[in-house]
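> tool_call: predict_assembly(chains=two)
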Amino acid sequence: MALKIVKGSIDRMFDKNLQDLVRGIRNHKEDEAKYISTCIDEIKQELKQDNIAVKANAVCKLTYLQMLGYDVSWAAFNIVEVMSSSKFTYKRIGYLAASQCFHESTDVIMLTTNQIRKDLSSPNQYDTGVALTGLSCFVTPDLARDLANDIMTLMSHTKPYIRKKAVLIMYKVFLKYPESLRPAFPRLKEKLEDPDPGVQSAAVNVICELARRNPKNYLSLAPLFFKLMTSSTNNWVLIKIIKLFGALTPLEPRLGKKLIEPLTNLIHSTSAMSLLYECVNTVIAVLISLSSGMPNHSASIQVSFSRHAHTFSLKYLGLLAMSKILKTHPKSVQSHKDLILQCLDDKDESIRLRALDLLYGMVSKKNLMEIVKKLMLHVDKAEGTTYRDELLTKIIDICSQSNYQYISILVELTRLEGTRHGHLIASQMLDVAIRVKAIRAFAVAQMATLLDNAHLLTGNTQRNGICEVLYAAAWICGEFSEHLEEPMATLEAMLRPKVATLPGHIQAVYVQNAAKLFATVLRGQEGAPADSTVAQETSQLLIDRLPLFVQSSNLEVQERASCILQLVKYIQKLQQKDVEVAEEVTALFAGELNPVAPKAQKKVPVPEGLDLDVWINEPPSGSESEDEGRKSKGKAVFAKDESRHTKPRYTEVDEKELAKRREVRKAEQANNPFYIKASPSSQKVYQDGVGVEHIPVVQIDLSVPLKVPDQYVKLEEERRERNKADKKKKKDKKKREKGEKGRRRRGDSGPESEEDITPAHMVDIVTEEMPEWIDLRFISPLILLSLSLAPHLQVCDIQGNLQDGSQVVVSVIFENKCDSFIKSMEFNVLDSLNSKLQRPDGAGPHDGLIVPFQLPPGISNEARFIFSVQNIVMPQKLKGTLTFIVKTDDSSTHEKLDFKLHFTCTSYLITTPCYSDAYSKLLESGDLKGCSLKLEGVNQPFHHLLARICFHHHFSVVERIDSCASMYSRSIQGHHMCLLVKTADQTVSIDAKCDEPGLLGNVLDEIKLTFSQC
Amino acid sequence: MMRFMLLFSRQGKLRLQKWYTATAERDKKKMVRELMQVVLARKPKMSSFLEWRDLKIVYKRYASLYFCCAVEEQDNELITLEVIHRFVELLDKYFGSVCELDIIFNFEKAYFILDEFLIGGEIQDTSKKSVLKAIEQADLLQEVHTHTHHREKK
C-alpha cells in the first residue's frame, strides 16, 4: 500500500501540471495540434489511475483544452468522479470542469443528482457554494425538479453567502422547472427584506427577471419595490428596480405618475451613468404609457442626458434613447438637431446609422431643406459603401416628401461616384415629374442637361448603376418635350452614337422618345414661316442615325428603331411633297398622363346592379364546413334572392345603406367572442338600423346574425339579414310557433333560412306562453340564443373539461339588445339526475346563479357555467330560466325567459390528435365495439365531408387515402372513438368503433342529422 | 441576464469563456469565432456596444485583452460595462496588477473569481470586499487540503 502511494507520487512528479501544459503549448506554436494530441494521450493515461490527485490534475488540463476548442466530452464520467471527491481542492476543479463542459444532453448529469444533493447539504459552506455555482451552469429540467426542494431550503440558510447563491439559482430552477415557482415564491418575497444587502439584491434580481417575463403577476409587489427604490443607495439594486418599474408601468399608468418624480430626482442627483441611463429609459417608457405627456419633464431629461451624450461612446445610447422619445415627443428632440448632425461625423458607423435614422424621423416641412443640405454635404465625405447607400436612400426618402428642388438634388446625386441607387433615383425622378405639373418645365431642363452630359455618366464602367438615371431623363424629355427650350439639341444628344453602349432597355427608351421629340421639333419648324428644308434636315438626321439602333442586338431596341425609321422615311416623302405632317405626327403621341391617387378608385361610384360582395364564382372551399352548406343549398338561395330582391337593394346603395352595413358588421364583431369588442354604442345603432326598425319588435322571428368566425359568411349574413327585413315587410306578420319553425327549418328554403350553416345542436324553445319570442339556435361550436326584448343570450360554447371527466363548461354571452338597463340577472337550470349545474357551496339545489354583471343597453358580457355530468352516453336537455330586471327611466319590470340547453353527445367529444400507429394499435386491441351508418345522396366533395365531421363533431383526421379516411376523437371520460369513412357514388358509409356502444350510437345519430340537414 | 462572457486576446486567442445558458459545443465555437471577428475589427474610438443577432454585445479592452459580454435585449449596457470593470478590478486585486499571463496560467483561479462574482449570469455580490474574502477563504481551504495531502505523502 505504501509502495503504491510512493509510486503514485513519483508518477506525479513526472506528470505535467496545468502550468506545464500551458507552457508546452506556447512552446509548440508550429505543431500545436500534434503536441496537444500527445498531451491528450497522457491525460487519458492519468485518468486511468486511482489517485484522485492525478485525476483532478488531468481534468484541470482538460478544462483548459476544452477552452481551446478540443472535444473533451469523452471524459465526462471522470469529471463526475472528481466532482465527488471529498476534498474541496478536487471538488472545486471537478465542478469547474462540469460547468464548462456539461450541457443538457450530457447523459452523465443523471448520475450527479445525489452527489450534488450531498454537497448542497455539506456542513462546509464552500462545498455548497461550489455545487451551487456548478449547478447554475448545467441545471437540467430533471435536476431542477429533483433539487428544487433542497435549494429552496438553502434560501433560508444561516450564512448569507449561501442564501444569496441559492436565491439566484432559484431563477434558473424556475426556468427549467416552472412548477417550482409557486411554492418558492413566498420565501423569495421574504428575501426582499433580508438583513444582508447581498441577499436582498439577489432577490431583487430574480424577481425583476421573473417580472420581465410576465409583469402582470408582479404588480402587487409594486409598493414594496417603491419603498426599496426610495430607500436603497445601491446603484446595482436601483437599476434592477427601475427596470422592473419600466416593465410594470404599461400595465398600471398610476404607477407611472408616481414614479416620475423620484426618477427625475435620481436623474439630477446621480453621477452613475448606468443608473442615469436606466432612469431615462424608464422615464421614456412611463411617458409613453402616460401618453398625455409631461413636456417639462421630458425636456429636463433631454437636457441632462444630452449633456452627457457629448462624452465618450454614450452617444450611441443617447441616440437610442432619443429615437424612443422621438416617437412620442418629436418636438423635444428637434432642439438637438445640431448635436445629432454632429454624430454623422462620428467614426463609428453604427452611431452614424443611428443618427441618420433619427434625422429621418425628425424631418418636417420646415426643416426639410436644411437637413437635406446637411446630408448632401455628408454624402461627399461619407466613407464605407453600406453607410453611403443608406445615406442616399434616406435622402431620397426624405426628399420624396417634398417636390421642389427635389429634382436638382436628384441630379446632384447622380454626380456621385459608384452608387448603386440609379434605379431608385430614376424612379423618383419619374414619379415627381409625372405627379407635379408645376415642376415639369424645371425637370425637363435639368434632364436635358443631363442627357447632354451623358458621356460623363457613362464614361466610366464603374458608374453603370447610375446610367439608369438616363432612362428617366430620356423619358421625361420625350414625354414633356413641349417644355424643352432647344428640342433640336436634345434630339441630337439622344441620337449620339455613344448611346449604343448603354444597356438595351435604356436604348429602347431613347429611341421611342427620340420619336416624340421629333414630333415636337417638326411642329416647331413647320409652325415657323416656311422653311421646309429645316424640317427635312431633321428627318434626315433621324434617317441617318436610326440604322445604328436597327442593328442593335436588343430586340426591343431593334423593333422600335426599325418601326420609327420606316415612319420617318414615309414622313420625309410627304415633306418632299410639301405636305404638312407635324399635326399628324404629334397625334401619335397625343394624350397626357395623369397622376392617379392610390385611393382614387374609392371615389368611383359602384354601377347599379353590380354587387362587389357577391361571389363571381363559387367560393373556394375552405376547411370550414359552412361552405358545404352554401354549396348545396346556397345556389337556390342565391338565385331566389337575386330575382326578388336585387332591385330594391341596389337602388339604395347610398350613404345610408353603406353606413348600415358597416354598423351591422360592427355589431356582429361585437357579438362575436373571437373579435375584440367594438365600442358599445355600435349595438344600439344596429338596433335602430334601417329596415329592422319598421317591424314591431315582438314579431321579429329571427333577429340575430349568425356567429361564424368567417369573413365571407359574415357578408352572406348581412345580405340575408337585409333580405329578411325586406321579406318581413311584405309577409304578414304572424307569430310562428315551435312546430312550424321546425318545419321551416328543413322545408322552407326562404332567403332567411339559416340552413346555410347547419345547426349542430338544437335547442327547443318554450315559447307558447311566453310574452317574448325566443329563438335558440345552436351553431357548432357556437351556439346562440336570442330574444328580442331584453338580453340577448348567446351560448357560445359547450365544451367538455379535459381535466375533470365529468365537467362541461358552458359559455354564455349575454347581450342587452333593448334600450333599457338590465340588472339582477339570475341564471337557473333545472337539474336532472344526470346533469347538474354547479352551484356555490351552501346554495340549495334550486337556487339560481347570479350573473356577476349588469348590462347597460347595447353591452354584452360573457359568463361561464359549469355543469357536472355523470353519464355522457346519452344526450341531455336541460330546462332553464333566466330572470332579470329591466330598468327604464321611470319603472322597472321583472322579466323571465325560458330556454333549453341541449347537451349533445358530440359536445362531450374533444378533438384529440392521434397518430396512425397508435390508432392501429387501438383498433387491434379488440376492446372496441363496432357500429355502422350509411348516408345516401351526399353530393359534396370528400374533403368537405371530412371537414364537416371534424368541425361539427370534434373529430380529427388520422389518415386519408383517396376516398377513404380514418378519424379519431375522445370523450371527456376517455372513451376512444374511431371512424372509418368511405365514399362512393354519393353514398357515404361510416364504420365506427368505440368502447362505449351507447355513446357511439348517439354520436352517429348526430352525424346523420348533420348531413340530413344539408 | 448575461448570456456569456468571453475574454480573448488581440490575436483572437480565447482566454476565458463562461456560458450562463447551457449551449452545445458546436454553437459555442461558432458564436465565439463570429463575435471575435466582429469585435476585433472595431476601431479604438468606436462605442463599446453593438447589436449582434438578438443580443447586445458590450465589450471593453484592457491592455491586450478584450472582455466581451453578451446580454439580453432589455439589459442595461452601461451596468454591463461596470460589471466588466468590476471583474477586472477583482482580478487585479487577486493577482496584483493582473496581466494576460496571469489569466493564462491560472485560468482556473480566474474562473473561481468570476464564479464568486457572477452566478447564473446575475451579479452575486455588489461588494468587492466580500467577493475577495470568499475567494481567500476557499483558497485557504484548498491549501489546508494540499498541505494535509503532502503530509500524508510524507
